[in-house]
Amino acid sequence: MNYLQPSEYEKYGLEATTAAAWVIAASAIVDSHCRRATLAIVQYTERMRIETGQGAIRTTYLPLVAVAPATSPIVSARARYSMPRRGEWLHEEMAWEAAAVFGLPGSWTDLGAADLDACLETGEIRLPVNVLGWGFSEVEIVYTAGLDPIPDTVKVACAQLVKNAQATPALNVKQGMLDRMHLMYFSDALLDSTVRALLVPYVAQKVG
To answer: How many domains does the chain have?
Structure first.
């Protein structure tokens, strides 16, 4: 996705005649630095392990966004029951016996979006509690996340990348011959402290 449209070039300090190739390459660098395919709203699928005793997970991509007509950012979810461990539950003997009867350890169960409490800003999703205390060891979740509209900070960062590229001698090639991969090769040099600071809130962080 291009984070600047031609009508916005001058507003963010670029010449109106700036070749689209500069913006395309700068937008690609933004995505690469933020470790995501795009900052726009898209659907993600993640499978995460759950530590014993924990009843929540945190998504990698933020912010969570519900796409109309849906009212929740969670498209679907399922979780795998963990093997009961002695000493972890108040009624452990009953839990062990019930789990064995129903063959729950290791099996997957579908979770409804209405059963999950999601924080849009932090990506924390709290899982439902089983009445017998059975816990989950793994969860697979499909959700939507991204930015709409694209904030000014991202647009400023994109414009600054274009300026940095145009000011780099090794990249002073004819605009009609601008090669995206050539520009990506210099991404570390083009991502100055200003650009990095602007993009900090949008860099995907994998939570262990």
So the answer is: 2
Residues 6+ apart with CB under 8 A from 208: none
Angstrom CA distances, 98 to 101, 104, 106, 136, 178, stand at: 5, 9, 14, 15, 66
- Assess whether 123 and 162 both reside in one domain: no
Same domain for 193 and 170: yes
pTM: 0.83
- Could you report the per-residue pLDDT of 31-88, keeping only the tens digit for each? 999 999 999 999 999 999 988 767 899 999 999 999 999 999 999 999 988 765 555 5
Distance CA 172, CA 9 (A): 19
Query: Which of 51-60, 165-174, 176-185 is most confident?
Result: 51-60
| Mean predicted lDDT score pLDDT of the chain | 85
Q: What is the distance between the alpha carbons of residues 46 and 121, in angstroms, rounded to a whole number? A: 18
Q: How many CB atoms lie within 10 A of CB 17?
A: 8
Q: Which domain holds residue 178?
A: 6-38+151-202
Do both 23 and 63 map to the same domain? no
Domain boundary among 127, 145, 163: 145
CA distances from 13 to 4, 16, 18, 162, 172 (A): 11, 9, 11, 10, 19
Flag whether 191 is in a domain: yes
Q: With contact defined as beta carbons under 8 Å apart, do 53 and 134 qualify?
A: no
- At 138 the pLDDT is 92
